[in-house]
Amino acid sequence: MSRGLVDGLTPGEVMEEARAVCRRLADQPPAAFETIKTSLKRPAIRRANDTLDELRKAFVDAWFSADGRRLVGEARARLQK
Prior knowledge:
Number of helices: 3
Number of domains: 1
Strand content: under 5%
Structural class: mainly alpha
Number of strands: 0
Distance between the termini: 38 Å
Order of helices and strands: HHH
Radius of gyration: 23 Å
């Protein structure tokens, strides 16, 4: 864990319980499972869509800023070597 390859350790019985939950979910009708997942994701998708224009503008502003142009130029120079 000290090398950052593993985030944590889990006792075996917890893993068995997680596998059992996964098996129960996998045994559900796919259409019902998809509907539930979609309804859970919908608020996040809506928030992402609501902020998309703002995020695009922030990206373009950063890309064409003095720092952005400098960093792109440096990357280009490294690639041309």
